[in-house]
């Protein structure tokens, strides 16, 4: 009887929490894919023999931007530069917390010049910018969960960002950093394996992480939404959330159902052309946390 009552109480608590999902206005940075192309292969998703429909990529990206604006968020734009076809993946250029910006230093030479474009943008905004000494790829490998354990930065490593960058980010931003090791090259960035869905919780695919990192995530986020391989392969984890509305790839229908069951409002968008470069919703969006 006690067990049954306890289960009922936990269910009622979950329902109450689900009914109280609250969106918070966000400020984002995006960069048009008008120069997007797959001219080299630096992740398992990129295939230089598969043509890209740039006009369709722009149309899909425009729809994503309009979706964010329609949800009440502000979107700033970064000007795409010639010779940098991956600039559309604006999340990779820096990582910003409380108005301080830790800059990116890309692993691959093909993307190195993107860092300067992001640096110029943040300096023009009058923000405190910390130039990196260590290799890191911005929000590609950093996620911020402000109300989890007093405020945590989750940081991925294994394919792009180097472990010393985690310590550098902690010193630059004054927030504790939790290192998580990625082990599957398909999920080469943290943001294709994990995302914050509100200010205290995350969704992630356990199989993308080492066994030790999985144990850490279980301890830190016992109520996390868990994705499966199908969700992850559909780039479902590469999402953005305002705490209530979750914008995610339209192919991730299973994950959309899981998020809805947890009390969130899934907002699917089609980004098939940009997926050809190894990115989806989150890759296209940097959050400006003032």
Uncertain spans = 1-18
Shape: globular
Strand content: 15-25%
Q: What structural class is derived from the secondary structure elements?
A: alpha/beta
Radius of gyration equals: 18 Å
State the helical fraction: 25-40%
Helix and strand sequence: HEHEEEHEEEHEEEHEHEEHEHE
Biggest sheet details: 3 strands, mixed
**How many DSSP-defined strands?**
15
User: End-to-end span in angstroms?
Assistant: 50 Å
Average residue-wise pLDDT: 94
Spatial arrangement of strands, main beta sheet: 2-1-15
Number of helices: 8
Explain what you see.
The protein is an alpha/beta fold and 290 residues long. The chain is 29% helix and 20% strand. The chain is built from 8 helices and 15 strands.
Quick summary of this structure?
This protein has helices at residues 2-18, 54-70, 114-124, 163-173, 211-220, 229-233, 253-261, 272-275, and strands spanning 27-31, 74-78, 94-97, 100-103, 128-130, 142-145, 152-157, 177-181, 194-196, 202-204, 225-226, 240-241, 245-249, 265-269, 286-287.
Properties at a glance:
single chain, 290 residues, alpha/beta, 3-stranded mixed sheet, 8 helices, 20% strand, disordered N terminus
Write the layout of secondary structure elements.
Layout: H1 2-18, E1 27-31, H2 54-70, E2 74-78, E3 94-97, E4 100-103, H3 114-124, E5 128-130, E6 142-145, E7 152-157, H4 163-173, E8 177-181, E9 194-196, E10 202-204, H5 211-220, E11 225-226, H6 229-233, E12 240-241, E13 245-249, H7 253-261, E14 265-269, H8 272-275, E15 286-287
Parallel strand pairs: 1-2, 4-5, 7-8, 10-11, 13-14
Antiparallel strand pairs: 1-15, 3-4, 6-7, 9-10, 12-13
């Amino acid at each position: 009887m006690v067990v049954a009552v306890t289960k009922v109480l936990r269910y009622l608590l979950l329902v109450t929490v689900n009914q109280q999902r609250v969106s918070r206005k966000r400020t984002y940075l995006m960069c048009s894919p008008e120069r997007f192309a797959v001219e080299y292969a630096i992740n398992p998703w990129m295939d230089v023999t598969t043509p890209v429909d740039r006009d369709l990529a722009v149309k899909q990206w425009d729809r994503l931007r309009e979706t964010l604006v329609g949800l009440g968020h502000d979107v700033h734009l970064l000007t795409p530069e010639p010779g940098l076809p991956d600039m559309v993946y604006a999340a990779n250029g820096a990582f910003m917390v409380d108005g301080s910006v830790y800059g990116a230093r890309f692993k691959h030479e093909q993307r190195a010049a993107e860092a300067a474009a992001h640096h110029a943008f943040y300096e023009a905004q009058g923000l405190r910018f910390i130039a990196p000494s260590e290799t890191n790829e911005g929000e590609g490998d950093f996620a911020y969960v402000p109300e989890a354990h007093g405020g945590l930065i989750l940081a991925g490593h294994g394919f792009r960002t180097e472990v010393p960058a985690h310590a550098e980010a902690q010193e630059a931003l004054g927030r504790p950093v939790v290192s998580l090791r990625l082990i599957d090259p398909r999920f080469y960035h943290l943001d294709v394996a994990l995302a914050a869905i509100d200010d205290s919780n995350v969704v992630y695919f356990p199989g993308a992480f080492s066994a030790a990192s999985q144990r850490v995530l279980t301890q830190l986020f016992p109520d996390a939404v868990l994705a499966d391989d199908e969700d992850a392969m559909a780039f479902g984890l590469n999402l953005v959330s305002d705490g209530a509305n979750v914008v995610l790839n339209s192919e991730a229908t299973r994950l959309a159902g899981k998020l809805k069951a947890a009390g969130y409002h899934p907002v699917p968008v089609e980004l098939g052309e940009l997926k050809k470069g190894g990115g989806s919703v989150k890759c296209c969006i940097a959050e400006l946390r003032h």
